[in-house]
């Protein structure tokens, strides 16, 4: 009964070595917001399936194993300790035993499975542990997922540099589309096509790439129609301890601005950090070499520090004690909201430079694959109304995160519950979604998408049926044939049946910039995500439903 | 007025705490009742009015480059930071304001006695008659076989801080009442606050017993016995002492204290542990200091909020309310609540329990009734606690603020359960302190009668009721599941939020820039109007195009709505430490009213237009100046206070 519609024979074969017990009856499932239920548990190569057999209508709960961040198991022997029993009783003793598996998910849900039989319990636990951490991308579920309502001929993705370039005719005078990276040899983490200053030829770009971390030479990511200013992003210049210069790099930046004008460089590290970076071969654009560019430093936390922040916050949210002081100090101690504040205010600064002061800006940190993208994305949301529609926002994410080479595979391998030793995990993308949520709270009418979309994306980045967030960059996706063999999340979100759920019923487009307030009083914990599995969140969802209904009713009356 | 040494000062700077770049230059006027600041900016008519009775402190600071700073703190948490060009002027303004206020020497000089809206005496009487507590008791089903209206306190002889009309158990005889009152602080004997028709359980309230270490009082014991017997379904009752146990024990040494379970039959005694007025006063003070920090970091703010302890106290009050609610609704057991005098913590806890128990108290009218009942009539000492008069600063305490905040915290958890909105709570809060209306003047009913409050002042309740459309929560539906029956809030610490809307109310830069509520209200009104029009259209049935005035409501579509709400995107430069931030002019567009003729096809056109709203780039951005409920006397801010700036 547990052969799932998505299940492939091939798939089952491949993973069967990890599955000793595929099927357990009489399992009790405890999950948040529901009473415990008894049913059958199945495990397959990619899923945990629980079917409730108590009612006539069988309820099924399907959990992607990839969603599971950590498990804790405890087994107990109901008949007590063995010394009292003879060998003959051994089998009886086993059958009288039971075990409990606590499943902690990347979507912050915590489930508990009471499984009869110690051996079965240990088998299931072992399978979960192994199968949820498989690192071979080509074995992941998106390669097996076959939705009935999306045909594979659908175009993959919504946006690209090419599309952006062709949509912005104003760009064409001073910018060009370069395919210098067509075989990913110049910059492995860039897409094949990038937008660069017209005066800079591909040979120059190759030299610049050698001077920038990971080959990430400065490319255009945003054109501000109101005043023709742009946002560029890249990796840090590799000036090193002896202040190396690169003529081509200087030329490239000079080509961005008029000779009389000035540009800003927003470095997502402190001035102290960039001095230290020089010792390891990195560096910054010195005033003497880049006289028309003014550097601004904003220290943004990333990497391990950010991951630990998330872990602390999730732990604080799970604290059952009723102590107010403890909650506030844990919230403070996690620093998560401080990171939200810094990200929004750095993005505000960037948008201010472009929109208010009328200057072009180059953003980078060290690699240019994390905070750089965070800041440039938020700034575009602040300034550009086109990014604030549902489609526009998804296209923005595709350009600025997926194609720009945010290493999703590394960053989202594990989440807040994992016991695994952390490597490259870091919730930068989650931080982005939190910041967007803060914007949405402050401008509830200005964004075309709903909180439900942000919540969906916050989980899809960690585990998904779709291929969109697989791999670390375009090159890897290309090598695995992601676009041919998996389905695109963004297209699925835009299907007519799904779309309404992800649209903001109150959306009223505005051409104006939406400047967020970054005062501590203006920023709040994202309850919808961090406290998603508490009953209180349900009341807030009801309010959202109520709002949607009111708008629908109003629409009906107005049209009748 | 002889107090005013200097009625007018030119070139005064009003500094913006949140965004210094938004500071304004203008003229400061002092009148008998208000301090008024009028901005100079050409074409901008921006006035800030501050009632003298709302001022709670004045502070001169050391001279700065922009002048001589004068800081005015108000009881509604407005902080005005003026910089006055000359020292002498600053001196004079300071002196004048000191004399004009902050605290009046006698009731007679309070603003409510000179506040004269254009209302005749009969109407004034109607205003006061609007609030009728007897109606609320009969709503609860009283009097009935178990509870009767007692005349014992008709002339305030038994307890001078209690109201004249009180409900007591049917079996409580006058000697029992009088005897019990002699055994209770300030004569505040146990009496009914809320009665649950469904299961006969009641919430009663009193002050502490004068039990000392061993004293007993037969009548008091009989009184509790009578309360217990008035609930036929239960064989015991709770006595809840809302104080921390240590405080209650300390009171015993002064001949007061708490009930000994051994002396009263079938009571279960319970301490709750809400701190006293002094702790609460200090806690709020600390929290307000955190609110006033200039560009605090996230950590500064959270640490400050934690060390103020404010949210911990709010949680304690709500926890106590939940305890009583569960006793009454789930166990069907009556509860007697007291603290020391039974007018602070007791009022908080009883009224919070009422809000949780009875959906009626979550309506606009219900909340007003509840405040009238558990706070005003039962003698919460408003004039002392809110510092209406010169008095002991140790008597001041934000007890009522905490109640209003508990309601707000509940509204945050149950967005569809309350008929009123946040603005309603904030308006009530402001008027508790403003002394513009007579409702909160004095410390008890007897004092208000002596002052002739009903004859000489106006009532806030009727004002609020007249303007109720401003205070309706558009998400409220009487038939919504959240509205029904008992509220079961969570008191997990993460459910308690900082109430930005009240404590940082005047710092416009930090509030959301668009209001969902205003938008929904507009939609709701429009839906109603459209439905009415459709109905009338069916009657008219293709007769002729209606005249324009009848079609006018169409102007109130989102199109019209945006006209009155310009986007104020003004922001705080120090936020991102760059230049300062853009706000664009709102471009009023003429709605195309020529098509507003009620023929079916035209109707359609208009509707599509208003739905798509494509021609209006400004739509949907609400100005929050309407957040200020005291708009007629607090801030007059018809235009954006930001100079129009078009992008460079």
Automatic annotation (TrEMBL), chain B:
It is a peripheral membrane protein. Residues 308-352 form the Tyrosine specific protein phosphatases domain. Residues 513-540 form a coiled coil. Pfam families: Myotub-related, PH-GRAM_MTMR6-like. GO terms for biological process: phosphatidylinositol dephosphorylation. InterPro entries: Myotubularin (IPR030564), Myotubularin-like_Pase_dom (IPR010569), PH-GRAM_MTMR6-9 (IPR048994), PH-like_dom_sf (IPR011993), Prot-tyrosine_phosphatase-like (IPR029021), Tyr_Pase_AS (IPR016130), Tyr_Pase_cat (IPR003595), Tyr_Pase_dom (IPR000387). One of its GO terms (molecular function) is phosphatidylinositol-3-phosphate phosphatase activity. GO terms for cellular component: cytoplasm; endomembrane system. Keywords: Coiled coil, Cytoplasm, Hydrolase, Lipid metabolism. The active site is at residue 339. Substrate binds at residues 276-277, 339-345. It is found in: Cytoplasm; Endomembrane system. Signal peptide: none annotated. Its main location: cytoplasm. Residues 608-617 have a biased composition (Polar residues). Residues 127-503 form the Myotubularin phosphatase domain. Residues 608-648 are annotated as: Disordered. Belongs to the protein-tyrosine phosphatase family. Non-receptor class myotubularin subfamily. This is Uncharacterized protein. The gene is mtmr7a.
């Amino acid at each position: 009964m547990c052969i799932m519609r998505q299940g492939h024979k091939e798939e089952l074969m491949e993973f069967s070595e990890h599955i000793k017990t595929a099927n357990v009856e009489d399992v009790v499932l405890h999950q948040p917001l529901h009473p415990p239920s008894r049913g059958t548990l199945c495990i397959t190569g990619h899923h945990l399936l629980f079917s409730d057999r108590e009612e006539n209508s069988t309820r099924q709960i399907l959990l992607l194993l990839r969603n599971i961040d950590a498990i804790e198991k405890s087994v107990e022997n109901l008949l007590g300790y063995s010394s009292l029993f003879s060998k003959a009783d051994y089998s009886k003793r086993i059958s009288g035993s039971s075990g409990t598996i606590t499943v902690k998910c990347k979507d912050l849900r915590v489930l508990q499975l009471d499984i009869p039989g110690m051996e079965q319990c240990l088998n299931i636990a072992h399978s979960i542990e192994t199968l949820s951490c498989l690192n071979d991308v080509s074995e992941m579920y998106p390669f097996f997922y076959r939705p009935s309502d999306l045909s594979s001929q659908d175009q993959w993705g919504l946006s690209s540099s090419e599309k952006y370039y062709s949509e912005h005719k104003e760009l064409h005078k001073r910018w060009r589309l370069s395919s210098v990276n067509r075989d990913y040899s110049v910059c492995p983490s860039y897409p094949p096509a990038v937008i660069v200053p017209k005066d800079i030829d591909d040979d120059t770009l190759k030299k610049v790439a050698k001077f920038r971390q990971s080959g990430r030479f400065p490319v255009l990511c945003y054109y501000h129609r109101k005043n023709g200013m742009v946002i560029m992003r890249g990796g840090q210049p590799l000036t090193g301890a002896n202040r190396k210069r690169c003529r081509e790099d200087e030329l490239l930046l000079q080509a961005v601005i008029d000779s009389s004008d000035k540009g800003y460089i927003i470095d997502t590290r402190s001035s102290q950090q960039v001095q230290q970076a020089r010792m390891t071969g990195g560096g910054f654009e010195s005033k003497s070499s880049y006289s028309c560019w003014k550097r601004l430093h904003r220290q943004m936390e990333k990497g391990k520090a950010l991951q630990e922040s998330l872990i602390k916050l999730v732990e604080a949210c799970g604290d059952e004690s009723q102590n107010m002081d403890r909650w506030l100090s844990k919230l403070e101690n996690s620093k998560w909201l401080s990171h939200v504040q810094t990200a929004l205010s750095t993005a505000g600064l960037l948008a201010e430079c472009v929109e208010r002061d009328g200057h072009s800006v180059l953003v980078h940190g060290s690699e240019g694959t994390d905070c750089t993208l965070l800041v440039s994305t938020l700034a575009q949301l602040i300034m550009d109304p086109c990014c604030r529609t549902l489609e526009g926002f998804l296209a923005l994410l595709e350009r600025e995160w997926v194609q720009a080479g945010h290493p999703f595979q590394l960053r989202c391998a594990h989440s807040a519950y994992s016991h695994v030793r952390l490597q490259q995990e870091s919730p930068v993308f989650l931080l982005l979604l939190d910041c967007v949520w803060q914007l949405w709270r402050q401008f509830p009418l200005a964004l075309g998408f709903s909180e439900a979309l942000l919540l969906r994306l916050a989980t899809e980045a960690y585990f998904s049926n779709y291929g969109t967030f697989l791999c670390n960059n375009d090159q890897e996706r290309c090598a695995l044939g992601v676009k041919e063999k998996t389905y695109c999340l963004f297209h699925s979100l835009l299907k007519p049946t799904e779309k309404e759920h992800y649209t903001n019923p109150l959306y009223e487009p505005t051409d104006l910039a939406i400047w967020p307030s970054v005062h501590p009083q203006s920023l709040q914990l994202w309850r919808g995500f961090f406290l998603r599995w508490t009953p209180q969140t349900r009341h807030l969802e009801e309010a959202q439903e109520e709002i949607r209904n009111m708008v629908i009713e109003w629409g009906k009356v107005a049209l009748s | 007025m002889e107090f005013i040494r200097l009625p007018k000062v030119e070139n005064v700077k009003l500094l913006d705490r949140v965004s210094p770049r938004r500071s304004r230059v203008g003229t400061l006027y002092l009148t008998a009742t208000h301090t008024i600041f009028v901005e100079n900016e050409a074409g901008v008519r921006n006035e800030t009015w501050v009632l003298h009775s709302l001022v709670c402190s004045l502070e001169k600071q050391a001279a700065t480059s922009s002048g001589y700073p004068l800081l005015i703190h108000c009881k509604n948490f407005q902080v005005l930071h003026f910089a006055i060009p000359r020292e002498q002027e600053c001196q004079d303004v300071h002196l004048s304001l000191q004399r004009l206020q902050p605290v009046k020497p006698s009731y007679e000089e309070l603003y409510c006695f000179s506040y004269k809206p254009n209302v005749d005496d009969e109407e004034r009487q109607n205003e006061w008659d609007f609030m009728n507590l007897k109606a609320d008791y009969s709503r609860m089903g009283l009097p009935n076989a178990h509870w009767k209206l007692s005349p014992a306190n008709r002339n305030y002889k038994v307890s001078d801080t209690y109201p004249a009309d009180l409900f007591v158990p049917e079996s409580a005889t006058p000697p029992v009442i009088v005897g019990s009152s002699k055994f209770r602080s300030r004569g505040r004997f146990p009496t009914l606050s809320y009665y649950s028709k469904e299961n006969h359980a009641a919430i009663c309230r009193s002050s502490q017993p004068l039990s000392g270490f061993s004293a007993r009082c037969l009548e008091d014991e009989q009184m509790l016995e009578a309360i217990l017997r008035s609930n036929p379904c239960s064989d015991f009752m709770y006595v809840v002492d809302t104080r921390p146990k240590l405080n209650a024990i300390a009171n015993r040494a002064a001949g007061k204290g708490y009930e000994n379970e051994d002396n009263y039959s079938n009571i279960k005694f319970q301490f709750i542990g809400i701190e006293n007025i002094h702790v609460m006063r200090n806690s709020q003070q600390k929290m307000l200091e955190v609110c006033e920090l200039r560009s605090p970091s996230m950590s500064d703010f959270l640490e400050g909020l934690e060390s103020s302890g404010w949210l911990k106290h709010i949680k304690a009050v709500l926890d106590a309310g939940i305890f009583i609610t569960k006793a009454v609704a789930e166990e069907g057991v009556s509860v007697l609540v007291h603290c020391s005098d039974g007018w602070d913590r007791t009022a908080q806890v009883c009224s919070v329990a009422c809000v949780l128990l009875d959906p009626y108290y979550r309506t606009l009218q219900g909340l007003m009734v509840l405040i009238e009942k558990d706070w005003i009539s039962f003698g919460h000492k408003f004039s002392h606690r809110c510092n209406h008069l010169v008095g002991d600063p140790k008597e001041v305490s934000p007890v009522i603020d905490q109640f209003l905040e508990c309601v707000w915290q509940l509204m945050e958890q149950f967005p569809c359960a309350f008929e009123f909105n946040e603005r309603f709570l904030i308006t009530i809060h402001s008027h508790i302190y403003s002394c513009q209306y007579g409702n909160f003047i004095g410390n008890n009913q007897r004092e208000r009668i002596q002052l002739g409050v009903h004859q000489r002042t106006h009532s806030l309740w009727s004002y609020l009721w007249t303007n109720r459309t401003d205070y309706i929560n558009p998400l409220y539906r009487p038939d919504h599941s959240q509205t029904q029956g008992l509220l079961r809030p969570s008191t997990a610490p993460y459910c308690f939020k900082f109430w930005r809307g009240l404590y940082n109310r005047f710092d416009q830069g930090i509030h959301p820039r668009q209001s969902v509520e205003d938008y929904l209200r507009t939609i709701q009104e429009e839906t109603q109007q459209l439905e009415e029009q459709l109905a009338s259209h069916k009657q008219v049935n293709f007769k002729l195009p209606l005249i324009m005035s009848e079609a006018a409501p169409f102007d109130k579509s989102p199109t019209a709505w945006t006209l009155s709400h310009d986007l104020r995107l003004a922001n705080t430069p120090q936020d991102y430490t760059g230049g300062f931030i853009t706000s664009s002019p709102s471009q009023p567009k003429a709605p195309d009213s020529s098509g507003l003729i009620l023929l079916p096809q035209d109707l359609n056109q208009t509707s599509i237009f208003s739905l798509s709203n494509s021609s209006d780039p400004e739509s949907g951005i609400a100005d929050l100046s309407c957040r200020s409920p005291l708009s007629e006397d607090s801030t007059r801010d018809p235009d954006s206070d930001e100079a129009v700036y078009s992008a460079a």
